[in-house]
Design a protein that fits this description.
GO terms for molecular function: pyridoxal phosphate binding; transaminase activity. Homodimer. The chain is an alpha/beta fold and 395 residues long. Helix content is 41%, strand content 15%. It is built from twelve helices and 14 strands. The protein is globular, with a radius of gyration of 21 Å. The structure holds pyridoxal-5'-phosphate.
Length: 395
């Protein structure tokens, strides 16, 4: 039987997109991975998590292994609430929905808000998995260009005013990663943050604020958009993937109680009570503030190493944005197609992510690439940049 014919019209449309994870490069084993947006292997707290699992099962026995919650798991929204307070965000625990990573939160929001006619505004470039998720629901996008200070809100204002005047559909949702963006590493200035909030009020759209990297600042803690929002327009999405362990899949959305209830309609049991209970136990036993302080220092040092190596080795036609936190450096190589460069780079033992995967229109990313300083150690980062420069000098 040909099952494809039974797919819903939304599924048929979604299947016309590239398959999920198409952007993931095939990296030979001996390659230095400047492509990976993962935490470094040595910062994943394996020993502490092992201990948390043992303690959890000693204390709660079979409970975390059933469908329903456990006392530990139910503590997690409360623990997240305390973390948010440190970001000047005030939510009660029933305004926080724990999800299977930030990805599930983004998907749920898209599912609840979007249909084929909905218009979504996105930064250009942006996190490719979010683009994949949105494209499962709609193909109506407005792309807002970025510079070294994040999304150009004046361009957004211009596009919105023009659409309004021409009677075109207005966006329902704007997706942004205002702090240490993926892939550009940029941080939206406070002035632009205020402008964005004003625009959302004026044109009545919601903002999905993805703050996956927000706590990994080098010097200054950015103020989340959500803290500037007085009309419940911001759906604030967070994650513990970048600061603890992505495999546990712990994220959340903080919004109104009503929206949490609606999102829950579709989330139901599609997450992991066991992983949530482990995370809660781990957070109880291991102060996250101390860990975050160590991570910030370690990632800042690695970022400095990458920036110094870029200064030392890169030819003049290469430029980059200097990040203030997060995992990434965004590089422009004039007159070079970075996806063609990847093959030679991996042959020379270094990987990166070509810029094209972060744009809806691939050609816009032709001369750009994303480097990650999170995964490799300082010496390897330096070596990786040297290897990349060798490939460039042969072109
Ligand atoms: C901006 C952004 N949001 C969300 C995620 C995924 O977060 P999670 O692992 O919590 O689903 C990533 C991971 O790369 C990311 O870069």
């Amino acid at each position: 039987m040909n099952i494809d014919q039974l797919f819903s019209s939304t599924t048929k449309k979604a299947l016309q997109n590239d398959p999920p994870g198409e952007w993931m490069p095939n990296i030979p084993a001996n390659c230095l991975r400047l492509s990976s947006g993962f935490p470094a292997p040595n910062v994943v707290p394996v020993t502490e998590l092992k201990q948390a699992v043992t303690n959890l099962l000693d204390q709660e026995q079979d409970l975390p292994l059933h469908y329903v919650g456990t006392p530990k798991m139910e503590l997690l929204p409360e623990q997240i609430k305390h973390r948010l307070e440190q970001r000047a965000l005030s939510f009660s625990s029933d305004e926080i929905l724990v999800t299977a990573g930030a990805c599930q939160a983004i998907d749920l929001i898209a599912r609840v808000l979007l249909d084929e006619q909905s218009v979504v505004a996105v930064e250009s470039p942006t996190y490719m998995e979010a683009l994949e998720m949105f494209q499962n629901y709609t193909h109506q996008f407005i792309e807002i260009p970025m510079d070294e200070h994040g999304m150009k809100t004046d361009e957004l204002a211009h596009v919105l005013a023009e659409r309004k005047e021409q009677g075109l559909p207005m966006p329902k949702l704007l997706y942004t990663i205002p702090s240490f963006q993926n892939p550009t590493g940029t941080t939206l200035t406070n002035e632009r943050r205020r402008h964005l909030i004003k625009l959302s009020e004026h044109y009545q759209f919601l903002i999905l604020e993805d703050d996956a990297y927000g706590e990994l600042y080098f010097d200054e803690l950015p103020i989340p958009l959500s803290a500037m929002d007085t009309e419940n327009r911001v759906l604030y999405v967070g994650s513990l993937s970048k600061v603890i362990a992505p495999g546990l899949r712990i994220g959340w959305v903080a919004t109104t109680k009503e929206m949490v209830q609606t999102l829950f309609w579709f989330k139901k049991d599609l997450d992991h009570p066991f992983a949530q209970a482990i995370m809660s136990q781990y957070l109880n036993e291991n102060p996250l503030d101390r860990r975050l302080k160590e991570l910030r220092t370690a990632y800042k040092e690695k970022c400095d190493t990458m920036l110094e190596a870029l200064e030392q080795y890169m030819p003049r036609h290469v430029s980059w944005y200097v990040p203030e936190g997060g995992y990434f450096v965004w590089l422009k190589i004039s007159n070079i197609d970075t996806s063609a460069l990847l093959d030679d780079a991996t042959k020379n033992g270094v990987s990166f992510l070509p810029g094209k995967y972060f744009f809806l229109h691939e050609e816009e990313g032709r001369e750009w690439l994303r480097l990650s300083f999170s995964y490799e150690e300082k010496e390897e980062i330096q070596q990786g940049i040297k290897r990349l420069s060798e490939v460039l000098s042969q072109m």
